[in-house]
Design a protein that fits this description.
By secondary structure, the chain is mainly alpha-helical. It has one domain. 64% of the residues lie in helices and 0% in strands. It is built from seven helices and no strands. Helix 2 packs across helix 4. The chain is elongated, with a radius of gyration of 17 Å. The N and C termini lie far apart (42 Å).
Length: 135
């Protein structure tokens, strides 16, 4: 499965990435799920925000379901194989930084308007990302 094949039907809402991952690995053997998710993880190492979010959620899914232990004796050995420190960790760090920046912008906008924009605006007009334009 190609990274773009599974990501393209995902909406821009990051909450849909975990749901999509669940549907991809549902009913798949643990070892096969690990291989599938590692393959996706390898493909999502390009440096844009959506890929950072995908890396974060894929790695969390591997950890939460302890899929790494289907083929590796330790998490450290799995992390070595996927080159976690050099490749995956910077992507996850980028995701956390981006989320912090988004949260700060959303807090600023909500404070100025007195209510969250998703309450004020129609659902189809709520922005994917908050910006200073809403101040």
């Amino acid at each position: 499965m190609s990274y773009l094949d599974w990501l393209s039907p995902v909406t821009n809402s990051e909450n849909s990435i975990p749901c999509k991952l669940d549907s991809i690995i549902r009913g798949v053997l643990r070892k096969d799920a690990l291989l599938l998710l590692v393959n996706l993880l390898d493909q999502c190492t390009a440096a844009d925000e959506r890929n950072s979010a995908a890396c974060h959620y894929i790695y969390q899914k591997i950890l939460n379901l302890e899929l790494w232990n289907a083929q590796y004796s330790t998490l450290e050995s799995f992390n070595t194989i996927i080159n976690y420190t050099a490749v995956i960790e910077p992507m996850i760090d980028r995701y956390h930084l981006t989320q912090s920046q988004k949260d700060l912008k959303q807090t600023e906008v909500d404070g100025r308007w007195g209510l969250p924009l998703d309450v004020i605006l129609r659902p189809d007009n709520v922005p994917e990302a908050y910006s200073r334009d809403f101040l």
